[in-house]
Every structure is written in structure tokens, then in C-alpha cells.
Amino acid sequence: MEDSPQTDPGKAGQAHEQKASLAPKSGERPDQGHAPVADHEIPNADHPSKAMHEASAGTPPAEEHIPAPPTMEAKYLHPILAQPPEALTGLRLEGREKVAAGVTAVIKSMQFSWSEGGMGRGTKALLGLNQKNGFDCSSCAWPDPDEHRSVAEFCENGAKATASDADDRAAGPELFAKHSLAELSRLSDRDQNNTGRLTHPMVKRPGDNHYSPIAWPDAFDIIAKELNACASPDEAVFYTSGKIPNEPAFLFQLFAREFGTNNLPDCSNMCHESSGSALSPTLGLGKGSVTLNDLHEAEVILIIGQNPGTNHPRMLSALQAAKRNGAKIISVNPLPEAGLIAFKNPQDFMNPLRALGALIGDGTQITDVFLQVRVDGDMALLRGIMKHLFEAEDLNPGQVVDRSFVAEFTEGFDSFEQNIRNTSWEEIEEISGISRAQLLEAANLMARKQKIITCWAMGVTQQRQGVQTIQEIVNLHLMKGAIGKPGAGTCPVRGHSNVQGDRTMGIWERVKGDFLDALEKEFKFKAPREDGLDVVESLKTMHAGKTRVYFSLGGNLLAAGPDTEFIAEAMRKQKLTVFVGTKLNRGHLTTGETSLLLPTFAHVDIDMQKSGHQMTSCENSMGVVSQNKGILVPLAGDQLSEVAIISGVAIATLGDKTTTDWVAMTENYDVIRDHIARVIPGFEDFNKKLREPGGFYLPNGPRERKFTTKDGKAHFTTTTLEKYEVAPDQLILMTVRSHDQFNTTIYEYNDRYRGIHGERRVLFMNPADMAARNIKAKDLIDITSHYQGEERTVEKFVAVPYDIPKGNVSAYFPEANPLVPITSVAKVSNTPTSKYVVVTVVPTAVNNDKRIKQREKMMA
């Protein structure tokens, strides 16, 4: 048995006097520890799910017609609102900004931090944020520097997320006694978040319209009784948010599997599932292949379907470093985002040589070539770049395509090359909206370079052909030999702080057989082998009344998922809904017959157990696992850690059927990590390595040109480029975040980079599309989506003229999520197509008669 490090029992989780490993330097490969292995995102070669998903890669998914739920009428049918209220909050338009961060970001960070947690508590939280002996940011998964970290190692959005977690306001029993669920649902999402931190376990019993206090043992008993009343373990669904650290994530999947199900949907199913589905069969690992240092020395960086200024602001520092080292950056996006244009680094204000320039200068120009692609046109765009590269190779044999790399490390090149050469320029230009000349400009930057990195996010993954688009990204890197060397590789940029780590811990509905073998050996039970349900399939099964219990460990699936009213109907059909969370959100209010709201700690909170102050761990976008150790005393109340909640549920539910020592794991998280070390490759000596400042890198085969596919080769993919037709009056909608939100958490009504203030119910439209529909700036409009003959409508949005390709429109989620059909998914990954929704837009007055008749019908 592998022992934990010898520590003072009163200081469990401390990093006291641990020897630091040498931090990897630019140009060196980080210490991988053991031979590279595939992660849990690639099934066994003979796994039926692998065959099924690969078979669907080249053909549209089977038609599955599910009637649209009532979207426009729902507010008349249900007193508890599943959608955000329609009340407008006062739009003020300004010009969009062309520089990200700067002094304004610093001021906004401080203002928000001090307003939420107070000056002392808020400042203390920020000083511990992303430090080697501090806690991990609960927002994005961007990596921290291996070596020096500044005093302010955070961005504006990280500061907001931390301030929200450090909130000193309490949402306790008094709040829920005073306000019914219906009343709370009429608050905006921002105001729900601003009620404060949840402090006591609460229950909504059958027929009640309020949450009321409940003791923890009684809450565990309710969960146990409902779970054990299931006719099959598969009548329960266990959902996970990506901010859950490794230790509770490991316990959550362990409990679900000891209970008997692989129904473990998580937020990955809705974001980077397409990345894993594309990368695993081509490179052998469903994760990125670069480190932060690689970005600093890249020669060309391609940013596609990502808005780093809002969603991953700390990435801008890496891009600035790359630019200062001579890198060229190509940005591909339907919107000209501020973070893709220029950046003023707040850290420069502390450098006397750069402070003046940072204050009054134009900042660092980020993009050298901007390609304003049409929504869903990225795949065609990538083909255009590669077609130019093949033409350049014809003129300069052996100088553009890395044929030695192709011959030694890859398979499938000839079919891929023919596929690209056979794609017509007319097709490429029409689908992408980018001219052949513009694509040549981008291709010329890459032609003689090999230190190329491509970064992408949900702008790619949530397309209908998101998986195939990412496979084209892989094709580009393989033809250039731009992988497995310093300054080169693939970089899917994850969202939540530990969304990648949760998957590594086994939070997946289609986990590998060898993981289950190791789990069975370690915990002495028989794990279920049949595939579970992902998010979309879970929701469809819940909606069909085939499940009994929905258990959510963090997150807000109601607001994060597609087809909001469909999700609401699914939730109402459950016998029990369980929500573990830190702050109130809309998802806690649309419930099953019985519902539990269980308060837990955030990353910033001190977690004291019997053995002392505990730490957890998170894995960032580049495969670094580092410690997370809270520094703030939790608010007065009756919160439990996620580990303690899961263990309490497991003990009550499994009883004598489990031999797992849930108590020992709760009392000392080192025990959990000892188990992880014996189950998951790459985590050997977990406790020791986690205590090394900065953490450790997980094995990564592609980073070393060791491709853990079946034949040990990297695989080119021959994809099918599909063109989709829409009616003349139809537009293509994509959903996006505002700058003042993180995922489904809304901090304010502003989006200052895009010039939006005081309002979220907006639709960005091309001025020509507005004129064609007789719509003027700030007119009220209704939006209707069209899919399989069904319509879904949201009302009272405000039209905003914007620089967006003709035929495309954009709106914020969750407000626009009711328009995304539950069955409209990306091929292979089953990810909802939030970046491709066919809609029509009309002035609100056009729907008045229809609305009146529907309301009369509902009220009759």
C-alpha cells in the first residue's frame, strides 16, 4: 500500500517544507513521470460506443423528433419561471472597445471584490488567488506560470468570481421563509446570485412553495430512500459542474458506480466534448498538447472560435509575451472582440519602464490577420488555409509540408490531401465568407513555420460539425509537423476551473474499461459496464419520465443547457432533485416533487476536517495538477464540504453494500489521493507531488510525439464539408457570454467591450439584416427558432446594430437558450449546437395578436 507523506496531523494538507521540483523552462518538456497513456475520453477499441459515434461522424444524426416545449407561453403555465424575467433593465449603447483590460479592468476588479466581500475579506481573497500556496480560481482553467507568479495573479473575471465566492451576505433560512420559489424566480439571475452564500441545508417537500430548513442526517435519509426506491440504478442521474475539484469528483463517480450506474453527465458534454471526440482518435489523448511556455515561443498562433478577452483574460498575457517574442497571430471569429484586437496588461503598471505606455498607449496589438468568418464557416476556412499550403508546397517542394514527420508519425495523409485539393475555392469562400486572398494572407504566415499553436473554445465545439472542424485543426498541425515540439501543438481552452480534471477523475458516462478494472480492484465492488447517459440523453430520459432522481453536484443545468423549458419540464417530473451549491441560482427553483438545496464550500473557503486544514486539487487546460487551499473562514452557518456531503449520501444510501471507508476519506483528503494514485495513471505519489509548489504535469503523449492510438500513429481525418441551406428570411444565431458573466453566473447587466450597458436581452444584428426587416436600433423584437418543423419563441429582446456577418445574429445565454432545440446536436460528440440555431426575427408588435390569443388560451 502506498503511504501518504508524513505530515503533522494537525496540519493536514499543508505544503510545509516540501522539496520543490525544477520548474520546466521554455523549450524543455515537463517531467512526465511515466509513459504517456490515453485518457478516459477514448473508449476501448472494441467498445460499442466508439463504433457508434465514429459511424455517425460522416452522416447527419438520425432524425429524432421531439415536440417543442411551450417557450412563449411558459410564463402563463408555471408560476416558477424557468427563463429569466422579460423585464428590460435599460439599455445604453456605446461604441465597442478596441483594447482589453487596462486601468478599467483593475478598477472593476477592486470595485466588485470590495462590494461583495468587503475590503478586508475581498483583498485577502485576491492575494491568495492562484498562488502556489493559495487557492485555485473557480472560474476559467487557464494555467498559472510554472515559475514566478505576480502578487496579482488573476484577471478581472477571476476577481469577480472570487469576490462572488467570498460574498459576506448570507442566503439563509430567513430568505427562503420570506420568499416563495415563485417570488425568487422573478428575480433576475444577477439578483439571485446577489442574495448571498447559502448557509443551511433546505428542503422543499411535496406541495410546498418554500424551502425550509432540514438537518443534514434527515437530508441524507431522504436521498437514500429515494435512490433505493429506484427500480434500477439507471433511474438516477448524477450531474457535475466543472468547478468541482478532483477529490470530490473522484468520490462522486465512485459513489454513482457503487450505486450501480454510469449516468454521470457533466458540463463537458455541453462544451469541450467535441474536442475530446476529435482529439482522442487522432492523437490518442482528448486534451491539449502544449504548455504555457510553448505559447511564449510560438511563431504563429491561430485563435479560432474563442474570445479570450472575456472568457479567458489571463491568456492575453501569454499572447502579449508571444507578440513581444515575434509571434504572428491569426484570429478567426464572427465578432471583432476587444481581446482579439489589443491588450493593456495591468501588470505593466507596476513596471516603471512600461507604466506610462500602459497608461496612455494603444496597448499591444494582438491580431495580425483577422478573419471575420461566418457562423459555422470555420471548417471551410481551415480547408482554404490548407489548400493554399498545398499549393505553396507544389511551388516549394519539401518546404511547406513536413513530409518526414508525416511519414514517420502519421497515417491517412494521402486521402486527406486529396480531400483538401478537391475542395473548390467557390465552396470555401461561400461557406466561410472569407475570400481566397484573405485566406492566402493567413496561409503565408504559416507556410514556412512549424512552431504553430491553435487555440479554440466553444465557438468551434458547439457547431454542428464541431468535431470535424477540430479534426481539420489536427490535420493542419500534422501536415506541418507542428506538434510535439517546443512552441507547437493543439490548445483547446477549457472553461471551468476543473472541467478537465473531473473527466480525468472518471466523471464520464462512457469511461474506459481499464479505469473500471482499477476502480473495482481498489474498492472491492462490481462496477457497471453499460454506458450511461450524457447531458442531452439524460434530459430526454428525464423528460420521458424514465428517471426518479436528479442529483447535481454544483452547476446550473437549467441555465447552461439547451431548450430551457424542455429542461424545466424534465426537472418537474423527478421525484427528487438534489442541488449542492454555494449560491442561489435559477436551477434551484425549478424542482422535482421533493427538492434539497445543500450548501457547500467554495474554493476560497477554509475546509477544516478532523485531521486539520484540507486541500483539494484542480487540473488546468494544460494538464497541470495543483493544490487548492482555502484562506477565508466560511460564513456562519451549517455548510459541509463537497467531500463530506458525498460521503454522507454514500453511507446513508449504500449501507452494508459498501466496504469503502467514506469516513476516513472525509477526515483526511490524503486518503482520497492515495486511492486516486492507485487507480489513475499519472497520479503515482499524488500526495507528494501535489505538495510541490506549482504542482505537477500529467502524462501527455502528443506533447512527446507518442501517440496513444491503437496503432501508435497520429491520424489524418478525411472529413465531409457540408453546406446547409436556410430560407431567405432566416438567420443563424450563436449564443455568447457577456463580459460581466462567467458561464451561467451573471455579475452585472453590462458588456462594456461590446458597448452594452444596463441590459442583457439584446440581439446583435448586421445593419443590412435589420433594414431588410424594418427594424431600427433599440426596437423590441421577438426571436423564433426553427427545427424539424417546430418553433420556439422568446419575446422582448432589443435589436442592436453590430459588426457581424450578414445572415448571422448573436445573443447572450442563458436568455437565448430556450431557442436551442434539445435534439440539435453536433455529430459524434452529441454537444448542443448553441453556435448554430436557425431563427427568424420580427418586431414585437407583429406577434401581438398571436400572443393575446395564446395567453387567453392559457388562462382559460
From TrEMBL:
Residue stretches spanning the membrane: none
Keywords, in A-Z order: 4Fe-4S, Iron, Iron-sulfur, Metal-binding, Molybdenum, Oxidoreductase
Region entry Disordered, spans: 1-69
Domain Molybdopterin dinucleotide-binding: 731-837
Cross-referenced CDD domains: MopB_CT_ydeP, MopB_ydeP
InterPro entries attached to this UniProt entry: Asp_de-COase-like_dom_sf, MopB_CT_YdeP, MoPterin_dinucl-bd_dom, Mopterin_OxRdtase, Mopterin_OxRdtse_a_bac, Prok_molybdopt-oxidoreductase, YdeP_MopB
Entry keyword NADP: no
Compositional bias per record (Basic and acidic residues), positions renumbered to this chain: 26-53
Domain Molybdopterin oxidoreductase: 197-579
Similarity remark: Belongs to the prokaryotic molybdopterin-containing oxidoreductase family.
Name the UniProt record assigns to this protein: FdhF/YdeP family oxidoreductase
